[in-house]
Sequence to fold (388 residues):
Amino acid sequence: TDSTIYIMNNITPTTTTTFDTNKNITLTSYSTSGNINSIIRGSNLTEQFIHLRSGNTTFKNITLDGNNISASSGILFADAGTTTNLLDGATIKNGVSNNWHGGGIRIDDGTASNRGVLVIDGASIINNEANYAGGVFCSIYADCYLKSGIINSNKALYLGGGIMLRDNSTFNMSGGMITNNSANAGGGGIDFSGSQIVLSGGTINGNSSDIAFYNNFNGDIHGDISLIKDTKSNFTFNYGKSYAIKTGINDTGVLDVTGGTAANATNIQLWETYGNVAAQKWNVKLQRMINGVIDYAFETSISSQFVIDLYGQPSNIVSGANAELYEFLDEEDFYWKLVDTGNEYYYLKNGTGLCLEVAGAGIVSKTNIQASTCNQTNAQKWQLEEVS
Fold:
């Protein structure tokens, strides 16, 4: 059974609004002038605001306003087994949760056979806050989709300013923007753990966090063991695992930190064969996504915060620039894109536009690593192989 509930004007509930009919229900504004009406949390409503217990609920052309009132949960609390659709004209704003994760939206714990679903397609989730997951919380066994819309200006005291994902959840982002969110401890834009994530479009950029915590680098993305699929570059990998970066010249030489010590300006070289040492293990870090294109950092397993960059200031870097280890700075020479060349090989294209290569196409240990004008040779092809 399908039903539509028209909100005729702004209303301010003083008790929890619960949907428990197991129907397909749409909430939308009714206005002859085209105004979007609001459902506003009442000043004494400090428990759940809107609780979705069953069925398929769609919100469009309606504002759900938490009124900046501190409560035990955020604006939308959706149980496992429900489907929540947030479409064009829907706004979730001003939620403040002092207890449950998810200042704007919480998709609650499910099971493998009873999953909650959230689809954001044109909605705005703005100015919400919580201790964890300021904007959106996709809990255990939740399936969350961002197709279009914005997650903006949400705050978390600890992790996941924009969105937080937890064990056995999935997140598929094909459009939209996650921007201008913040988290004190990490993952200003997105924080994930034990999740499966597909990134094919949209933008995650311009978020912030205290970069001193959790190896968060630029503040947009923080995560733990999860399976990531980058569809633009055709690269799928296990986030939180270590990788050897092997040259396309002979499939055996690998990137190696000279001397096995992490310090600023430490040289990066080729080593003839992989030796199962920290100097030859690299952690692949998601840094940001702009219009579906992901920028990565490559962190040495020797010590956190030290990543591959190019010698010099970004504006002065030219072909032949030396590759080195350095503590992460939010500058273009610290960002790398993966460009698919086929057969699981990639060009590592720096933010300056140069491609990482083996100097002179050498194959012996201690051959230098540099970045030069991209030329599609095997010396600029690399394979990332999971090693631990």
